[in-house]
Design a protein that fits this description.
The chain is an alpha+beta fold. Helices cover 25% and strands 20% of the residues. The protein has one domain (4-93): P-loop containing nucleotide triphosphate hydrolases (Rossmann fold). The N and C termini lie far apart (31 Å).
Amino acid sequence: MADTGDIRNIVLLGHGGSGKTSLTEAILHKTGATNRLGSVDEQTSICDYYDEEKEHQHSIASAIAHAEHGGKLINIIDAPGYPDFIGPAIRRYRLPRQQSL
């Protein structure tokens, strides 16, 4: 288990088709988290696992993956980029309100 000081959380946000899923796949492959480079076009992406995501070649739900690099645990959240799915993406990353003491 990683020390909390060695954890990095990354959220990839951008418009549809900007390459968020492809970047996630490249990071996973380059760090050795996967033994093959997944592809959105070839429907082999780890992050797009629903049949509808593969068929339409865009993410519907956020996908979470992790890799290790330089002694750090990197959590990657690949968010959908199409406006139809913006509501769930915003809810996913909304910070909780601070409670008064």
